[in-house]
Amino acid sequence: MDSNSSAPNPIPIFSTFTSPFEGSPRKTDSTSSTRKPLSLWPGMYHSPVTNALWETRSRIFERLLDPPLDAPPQSELLTKTPSGSRMTILYNFSTDYILREQYRDPWNEVRIGKLLEDLDALAGTISVKHCSDDDSTTRPLYLVTASVDRMVLKKPISVDVDLHISGAVTWVGRSSIEIQLDITQPATGESAVTESVALTATFIFVARDYKTGKAAPVNRLSPETEREKFLYEAAEARNALRKSKIINDKKGIENGDMNRFQVLLAEGRIFCDMPALADRDSILLRDTRLENSLICQPQQRNIHGRIFGGFLMHRAFELAFSTAYAFAGMMPSFLEVDHVDFLRPVDVGDFLRFKSCVLYTENENSDQPLIHLEVVAHVTRPEMRSSEVSNRFYFTFTVRPEAKASNNGHRIRKVVPATEEEARRIIERMDADSLQSFS
Fold it and tell me: What is the DSSP letter of 140?
């Protein structure tokens, strides 16, 4: 996304742990008169970014903590510009040792799972900024993450070089908001002037009325620059594509594609009926599964008292990474979040189960085989004997080049379904990924 001369200064991000090498409190310590009390935040699930965003936008957030439900809704929609919602945050990795350690992974790169949390927090703040009417007499909107349309890693992100995340609203519908975020970082040894985009992400938020829970209209958007107009038109086309995909998916289920089903199922039947004769370069989808479970804690809740969406993405990513590692037999490397659906809220105390599997693989490029994974989150209520899907996450991984080099000749196996339901999931994801590559 182009930088804008009218954009506010970047929000600096600091480590939230006390450094053992510092003898005096930080400028942002809780004793500072400029620091907002953490008691105002409903949970204690703080990353450096959520801390910084909270302090920067505390006036809006304080209003969201205790929304005036008896107050009238916003009477007149405002027209805002993308630059009005634009925000930038800066990670001072080059100078802040503790911050580096909070984000470092085993390969001296930034932990993708923690970035997913930060991206969700920043996108949420941008949506709040766009929907704010600066009128304390009206009740604010309840904004929730509906989906992550796509997130693409364009190059490895070093933890030793300063990092920027910038974003703005690029499109709005009646009650939905699309936000594009870009992570930029200069190559090692280069100046910040030559920094390039390392990751792009598109988030979709929807607005609900705090009192009724129904869809609520959001402020309009008026793009000004050529770049903003281009992004708005591209988002409009994606929205139309999403709607047509829903219609086509229904038709596809009705009409069926028995030929594709049968081709996929044929090899799976051999595994089930004659395992000794099955192709050793293939594996059943069910044999790629991993699972973990947790009880959602109060410390993981967001400003609305629900479990923070970024936390869910982080946990799903960690499981997807482990699944790709166990499946490939080599260290995986993240490429994309293909799509994330937030289907229902997750509450404090919920018993949450994450189930992962490899849906399919692509071996056309032997130097960069692709592993496509699905992670499904279930809210399970044993006392009610119920289990509901809350989220679906789709990831794409490859293998790290150094791991591929040390395992020369090792081939990524083909995944085959054992049931029609598994075949349907594979075909749906293949079609969605193919459609996405052309959008």
Answer: P
